[in-house]
Amino acid sequence: MSVYRPKTTVEQWRILQAVVDFGGYAHAAEQLNKSQSSLNHAVAKLQQVLGVQLLEVRGRKAYLTDIGEVMLRRSRQLTQTITELEQLADNLHFGWEPEVRLAIEMVCNRAPMLPVFADFNRESRGSRLVIDDTVLTGTLEQIIEQSADVVITHNLPKGVLGEPFGEFRMELVCHPQHELATLPQPIKQADLLNHLQVVIRDTASKPAETSGWLKAEQRWTVSHFDEALRLVKSGLGFCWLPTYMTEQSIARGELARLIIDGSSHRSGLLYLVLPKGEKTGPCAKLLANKLLEMKPQVVSNVVELGQA
């Protein structure tokens, strides 16, 4: 297979951009500290190898042709990519990570984080962000094995410190016409035994059922809250879901809130953890600091979780 060899150079495209941006060859030559004749030659050569006219000179000013406008727009993407690539190499040379992995407990409401992610993107210097959804011992696994750079969890492993990040809250829900919704509230735990429970699969490589009410005779396991919500709305079963996911559905009459005798809801704290401690890279620290500075703090919710 033949290898394509570019006919043009990045420098030629940068000269074309300068001629357009500074209104002509003379001003561009001053800004680039080059001779006007060298710029003329570079643009002429560019047009020659491409076989199209990019600029036309009227009076003392150069104007883009229709073809030139299209090519100029694409060339700006090229030179911007080259600039970012060179900047990334410089950043990596000084220890800036090429990739940051953020593990977020699936109970956490992501909506308040979106402005932080946008801000981080502007300052990340080209580093990629990978966001992992984790559940229960899957989150602990990310911390213990240090497979993530930043972790948001509702459960801290022994000996691990975390910075308080927000609150969580969950509630038991079912379809308004489900049999459980017709019972006098609060209901007994025994009332749940013969009904289908929807749970979220633990994301750990070796999951352990250490929390959550998992005594239902029938249990369906799904991988994400969205699927659990769809099943519950269809009337198939009951599930513990985050209040940020259920409030509007309850208000619209699409879900019914169940109160269990001795447990009206569940709540607690979320923590932000840096599993690698002092080895945490500067880009990961940037993300962690921006998340902790977020105002107001994230208010999240914990769901009843389990494994297949």
TrEMBL record:
<dbReference type="Pfam" id="PF03466">
    <property type="entry name" value="LysR_substrate"/>
</dbReference>
<dbReference type="InterPro" id="IPR000847">
    <property type="entry name" value="LysR_HTH_N"/>
</dbReference>
<protein>
    <submittedName>
        <fullName>LysR family transcriptional regulator</fullName>
    </submittedName>
</protein>
<keyword id="KW-0804">Transcription</keyword>
<dbReference type="InterPro" id="IPR036388">
    <property type="entry name" value="WH-like_DNA-bd_sf"/>
</dbReference>
<dbReference type="InterPro" id="IPR005119">
    <property type="entry name" value="LysR_subst-bd"/>
</dbReference>
<dbReference type="InterPro" id="IPR036390">
    <property type="entry name" value="WH_DNA-bd_sf"/>
</dbReference>
<dbReference type="GO" id="GO:0000976">
    <property type="term" value="F:transcription cis-regulatory region binding"/>
</dbReference>
<dbReference type="Pfam" id="PF00126">
    <property type="entry name" value="HTH_1"/>
</dbReference>
<keyword id="KW-0238">DNA-binding</keyword>
<keyword id="KW-0805">Transcription regulation</keyword>
<comment type="similarity">
    <text>Belongs to the LysR transcriptional regulatory family.</text>
</comment>
<feature type="domain" description="HTH lysR-type">
    <location>
        <begin position="8"/>
        <end position="65"/>
    </location>
</feature>
<dbReference type="GO" id="GO:0003700">
    <property type="term" value="F:DNA-binding transcription factor activity"/>
</dbReference>
